[in-house]
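Need tokens for this chain, all 294 residues.
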Amino acid sequence: MLSQTAHATTIAAVACGLEPLAASEPPLPRTLEGVWDMHGHLSGTALSGTPEERITTLLRYADRMGIERLVVFMGYPWANDPTPEDLRRQNDQVLEAVEHSRGRALGFVYLNPKHTDASLAELDRCVAHGPMVGIKLWVALRCHEKQLDPIVERAVELKAPVLQHTWFKLTGKLPGESTPCDLAQLAARHPQASFIAAHVGGEWERGIRAIRAAKNVAAEICGADPTAGVVEMAVRELGAERVMYGSDYAGRSFASQLAKVYGAEIPDQAKRLILAGNIRRVLQPILAAKGMKP
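Here are the structure tokens for all 294 residues:
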């Protein structure tokens, strides 16, 4: 088994685009097993072709990094304010990828709260009557708005977690882009719901503090550069049980985002929770209800 330093060096080599492993070589050695990735998409510069071809490529890269399961949402092309037709098309693409993955990819349904009725119908189609296991909300409408309440209420009934894009931006947010503060407001109205703050606000010091009192919100650390300290602060302020690994593939590499956790100065047990345990726990109720293997 590699030491932590050697392991980090190997990850960095892959992240920098050095020669890929030959097909006959074993996966990279790693210190922790069975990683689940909470955040990713079917679009990105490294991807092309059908949904089936894209998920095949992603799983090949995931295998190299010891990633067991991928959560995937949003098809292509992206739209900041998708119509009901856009939602259905993108969700169909994700459904195709999930089916092709043979259980390794778990889909979240992409919704737009501006189209409440259409989103509720899509939620039922893909989650209540389909294989998807969660909800993805992006930048169409700030998440503290009342239009989200019916969607969250239905999510609670279905035991589906809600993953909300959150970001603080010095350059100015998109009109419907949410911050962790917005998500904390929504979470306070729905204490029975399970929320995930994607990117934990980008400006993670503020983001972590913004959700600290919202016990039903987990911090997901995907995207941005692999800055030292983000995982340590999240564990210190929230507890390891409220921190989740995600990469934001294919826009970010698995390696650069895993480095945030592998390089963090926290106990291995906390790393295990962040890399898989917490995601398994949050998804366990809906997986059990659907009879799906965790």
